[in-house]
Amino acid sequence: MSKPGDFDAVRKDIAAQLHRPGYDDGSAGPVFVRLAWHSSGTYDAESDTGGSNGAGMRYEAEGGDPANAGLQHGRAFLEPIKEKHPWITYSDLWTLAGVVAIKELGGPDIPWKGGRTDLVDDSKVPPRGRLPDGAQGADHLRFIFYRMGFNDQEIVALAGGHNLGRCHGDRSGFEGPWVTNPTRFSNSFFKLLLQLDWQPRKLANGMSQFVYVDPDAAEDEEPLMMLPTDMALKTDEAFAPWVKKYAEDKDLFFDHFSKAFAKLIELGIQRDEKGVVINTDNKLGGYVSAPKKSNVATGPPKPKGPLRPRL
Ligand code: HEM
């Protein structure tokens, strides 16, 4: 048990949890990044609801959203840390895990402040359908990200999160990694998006994505993939110049990604002039951490069809 508020101790323990031989590409980092993003990406600026405060994914209403399929692994990987530092809220732990993972996997420093509170019941869990659907295009991306308060440049920067990790047939229904080294944060995603010859492919489950089949690859080698939403970044007039800039200039991408991700995890968090969170979502008030939920990755029952979120 660390001293309450000793976030550096938590950071160290998160970093030590990343190495996972036998899980995906050997790191829990990508799923931590997605957990941080999905816990924050429910924000709606107009109604000032959703966002990372609350950690609503502990409840079936949000955790069982098909858009969040697979994130139970990330949450379960973080349980030993919650146990060791019970004073930290889940909402702080999940956002911090994303920030630590990005840094440890070679990405930029991302400013992070603690103080989020956890909801005490599911009455303020945001409605489903607020997260993006990879099967769609540029209009959909704008609809989703403008709602949170992002602009076109920030959308492209954030989409660079796909330098990490992979799609899983049993989670989203899409299949494969975006880059050849999915546990190293870089600007490869943008380079490959522009350079490779992406071909549409219909999967056995009926989903459509884009793949690059390397003619020199061994037969059992997994092709790289792009989602329809990723491809929209290079065909849309306003998104495309940013894809080009980020492909050419890794430092610029890291700088813009860091700023956009820091903004993402602060959406809906209200702080006073000293930086203390003043959100009143948690009726108990103050810095209140929710009790532990589970040590194991439990999720919604497996749906029969593809897990694509229906909007
Ligand atoms: C632009 C709209 C976005 C769409 C449509 C989208 C869609 C997806 C989909 C379908 C997956 C595969 C999930 C699975 O099967 O496990 C995925 C994974 C991932 N996404 Fe996104 N995403 C978007 C934005 C972002 C953003 C903003 C970030 C972070 C900055 C991000 C980070 C990730 C990561 C790290 C993974 C890999 C997770 C893993 O390996 O388990 N995505 N995304």
Task: Tell me what the structure shows.
The structure is a single chain. With 311 residues, the protein is mostly helical. Helices cover 37% and strands 5% of the residues. The chain has 12 helices and 5 strands. 45% of the residues are buried. Strands 3-4-5 form a 3-stranded antiparallel beta sheet. α11 packs across α12. It folds into 2 domains: 125 residues, Peroxidase, domain 1, CATH 1.10.520.10; 120 residues, Orthogonal Bundle (Peroxidase, domain 2). The C terminus is likely disordered. Protoporphyrin IX containing FE binds next to α2, α8 and β1.
- Helix and strand element order: HHHHHHHHEEHEEEHHH
Tell me the number of structural domains.
2
The main pleated sheet reads as:
3 strands, antiparallel
Principal-axis shape equals globular
Residues in β-strands, percent: 5-15%
List unreliable stretches of 5+ residues. 301-311
- CATH fold assignment of the largest domain: Peroxidase, domain 1
Count of helical regions = 12
Radius of gyration, whole Å: 19 Å
Give the helices and strands, then pairings.
Layout: H1 7-17, H2 29-40, H3 60-63, H4 71-77, H5 79-84, H6 90-104, H7 138-148, H8 152-159, E1 166-167, E2 176-177, H9 188-195, E3 199-202, E4 208-212, E5 224-226, H10 228-235, H11 240-248, H12 250-266
Antiparallel strand pairs: 1-2, 3-4, 4-5
Helix pairs in contact: 1-6, 2-4, 2-6, 2-12, 8-12, 9-11, 11-12
Bound molecules: protoporphyrin IX containing FE.
